[in-house]
Amino acid sequence: MGEMNESSMGKWESICTPKEDGGLGVKRLDAFNLSLMGKWCWRMMVDKEELWYRVLKARYGEEGGRLREGDSHSSAWWRSLCGYVKGLVRELVGGLIVIFGG
Fold first, then answer.
1. Cα-Cα end-to-end distance for the chain
2. Residue pLDDT, tens place only, 20-40
3. CA distance 44 to 88
4. Measured distance CA(45)–CA(67) in Å, rounded
5. What is the three-class DSSP state of 30?
6. Which residue ranges make up each domain of the chain?
7. pLDDT value at 9 more than 80
């Protein structure tokens, strides 16, 4: 999908408007994908005993309590998730990990 001009962006906004507000109710996939990536990052911090985490740990390894990034032979999902994580800044505040978008 190439660059969108102002006219097509306006049309896309109306397509993504909820049906009850006169739009088509199509989800904004960029926002939906971002929220799913955030959910996976959160799960990687708190669900370290789950099977899916152990599978990723066996595949990519763990270093300093974090899963390793992998390389060009990693899955597209893993490369995308690692790219997302690179854009985050983590800060420990009062025992809680706070994530800010970068």
1. 24
2. 988 888 888 888 888 888 888
3. 14
4. 10
5. helix
6. 28-101
7. no
